[in-house]
From TrEMBL:
<keyword id="KW-0805">Transcription regulation</keyword>
<dbReference type="InterPro" id="IPR036388">
    <property type="entry name" value="WH-like_DNA-bd_sf"/>
</dbReference>
<keyword id="KW-0238">DNA-binding</keyword>
<dbReference type="Pfam" id="PF03965">
    <property type="entry name" value="Penicillinase_R"/>
</dbReference>
<dbReference type="InterPro" id="IPR036390">
    <property type="entry name" value="WH_DNA-bd_sf"/>
</dbReference>
<comment type="similarity">
    <text>Belongs to the BlaI transcriptional regulatory family.</text>
</comment>
<protein>
    <recommendedName>
        <fullName>Transcriptional regulator</fullName>
    </recommendedName>
</protein>
<keyword id="KW-0804">Transcription</keyword>
<dbReference type="InterPro" id="IPR005650">
    <property type="entry name" value="BlaI_family"/>
</dbReference>
Length: 155
């Protein structure tokens, strides 16, 4: 794992957890959805936009966040702008308000994280083997089906 790249688990209530080896700080929450590379509020904004499946205004995000904890409009507006500047969100103007939407799906983002983490391994074969061994039967079945489908296309 890259040093200085936070790993956030989103949706309050939450608590910081330091792994026993001290390798990284994780943001742990009730939902335990890993969003690597985002700060807490960035992750909460992205999760809402992904969950909603539609573009949204900062006001909508603020109102939803305020159901679980207080957060200022200006804070969310600033963080949404940061996500836009980083390339995670696209935006367009509707009257005086910015409308934001993710540039990729949660699944595409997750897949890119998986590729990034695998690329960081010094032994990718061992990492893949351990990953597959940790799958439940349903996940393993889906992987087998995907590999068989892919093998048929490349035969």
């Amino acid at each position: 794992m890259d040093e200085g790249v936070p790993v956030a688990l989103v949706n309050a209530p939450a608590a910081w957890v330091l792994p026993a080896d001290g390798s990284a700080l994780w943001w742990r929450t009730e939902r335990s959805v890993v969003v690597r590379g985002f700060g807490q509020l960035e992750a909460e904004i992205m999760e809402r936009l992904w969950d909603w499946g539609r573009p949204a205004t900062v006001r909508e995000v603020v109102d939803d966040l305020n159901l679980t904890r207080p957060v200022a409009y200006t804070t969310v507006n600033t963080v949404a702008d940061v996500l836009f500047q980083k390339g995670w969100l696209r935006r367009y103007k509707a009257g005086r308000a910015w409308i934001y939407e993710p540039v990729c799906s949660r699944e595409a983002y997750t897949a890119s994280l998986m590729r990034e983490v695998l690329a960081e391994s010094s032994d990718q074969q061992a990492a893949l083997m351990l990953f597959v061994e940790g799958m439940d039967e349903g996940q393993a079945r889906v992987l087998r089906e995907l590999l068989e489908r892919d093998t048929g296309r490349h035969a």
